Amino acid sequence: MIRYRRPKQDDAVIMHLIETELVPLSSMTPKQLDETKKELPKRLSQGVTLVASPYYEADALGFVHFMLHGDLLYIDMLAVAPAAKRKRWGNLLMVHAERFANSRGCKRSKLMVDTVNSSGLAFYSKLGYSTIRLHSSSQSYELEKFL
What we know:
The protein is of the alpha+beta class.
């Protein structure tokens, strides 16, 4: 099931997923990573975070955090636990985020993927995202999809 984030229950799991699934793929310096980690609670309080779990009271298996800017859906973070990968949780999270945004007038979606994240690039490509540019300063690709 996909549900809204419940901070007291979900934030420890979300922070763990960020630390184990997203940080290793980042090209940020240790100093930049420390700053980003400090900002995470504030970042999660902005926008919407959806959580994948086998049932309502269960711990999160994955999450997607996103923001809406006019007609743009911006996918900020997506991570799925290793044991839950390749079981369609990431796909479900993205479909729910896109439907949420579409119902609020969004016409397109953007996200950033680190250049070393080849499995992430393949995943988003299967969902219809196309690379529109490389940001060499952050070593990441900007991807876009029309909803």
